[in-house]
Design brief:
Blueprint (H helix, E strand, L loop, with lengths): L1 E12 L15 H17 L6 E11 L8 E11 L4 E9 L4 E12 L6 E2 L3 H8 L2
Antiparallel strand pairs: 1-3, 2-5, 3-4, 4-5, 5-6
């Protein structure tokens, strides 16, 4: 398995519709926030997805709440890459650099036609390991 040190930061604000009745980020939105930051990271690397990337496992540790209108950064720190999957090591911080969440997200690539898992494409591997 190849360990890639990424250090990519994606900053955004939490909107009201993403919260529960107490104004706290709803648990279901953490994976969506991860996917949004991953897509931004892939765009920055010129990665074009011809197949689907599917979350096959997630490990999310909530440390402190993200609240309505909070500005925070989603930091992709590392990607562990092998033939069959990628694991993203991600942390979310507020503007005071307090860690709010830690996530490890495992992704597999799935063929759009057959809907069957397949090896991670050489396009993705080459773009991630370039530099």
């Amino acid at each position: 398995m190849t360990e890639l040190f990424i250090n990519y930061k994606y900053q955004r604000k939490l909107f009201h519709y993403e919260t529960d009745a107490d104004g706290v980020c709803h648990a279901s939105n953490y994976l969506r926030l991860f996917e949004e930051s991953m897509e931004s990271f892939f765009d920055s690397k010129g990665i074009i997805l011809s197949n689907q990337l599917v979350i096959s496992h997630s490990d999310i540790h909530y440390i402190k709440s993200i609240r309505t209108k909070s500005v925070f950064s989603i930091n992709i720190n590392k990607i562990y890459l092998n033939r069959a999957y990628m694991i993203f090591d991600v942390e979310i911080y507020n503007l005071n650099e307090e860690k709010l969440t830690r996530m490890k997200i495992k992704l597999v690539e799935v063929s759009r036609d057959s809907q069957v898992p397949m090896p991670i494409s050489s396009h993705i591997k080459n773009k991630l390991t370039k530099d």
